[in-house]
Amino acid sequence: MSNLSHRCHWAQSTNQQLVTYHDQEWGKPHLESQELFSLLSLEMMQAGLSWSTILKKRAAFMTAFHQFDYHQVAKMKPELPDLLQNAAIIRNQRKLTAIINNAQAVINLEATGISFSDFLWDYVHHQTIKHDVPDATAVPKTIPLTDQVSRDLKQRGFQFTGPVVCYSFFQAAGLINDHENQCPFR
Model-level pTM? Predict the structure, then answer.
């Protein structure tokens, strides 16, 4: 394997949790609907915060949201007051409400005969889009594709899924590969 010092700029860190996330998870194709729902939820929570913060709280989120089993999460509206008191997670009411709402939106999507995974992977024709990323400055915040995904998700009742969240989500879930060209994990 090539030199690990050539990792993506954002993963050249002393934060081992961030490095491990980059090396083992970020940008790898995630195909299961529950896993994709989990990643979308965490990307929503990350908006305006650092990914390191989310990684530190990920285990607590997994526990609080039933391992992101969207069938269980969709029934959590009565638990919102408890979530807002849970210091182990980020207590942003809009974001927490959106996760619960989005779980119901996934269920509604599935009721039409389309899995959340197929819905998302259809946008990229079931093949990861590989961008030319010579360095971190070449990575956009959004692209027309994720602008469209954002609009389509909102039409289907999803919340807090703006174009920037969708782009970050597509990167994390491996629908888009934005590892820098010199990164050994590309």
Answer: 0.93
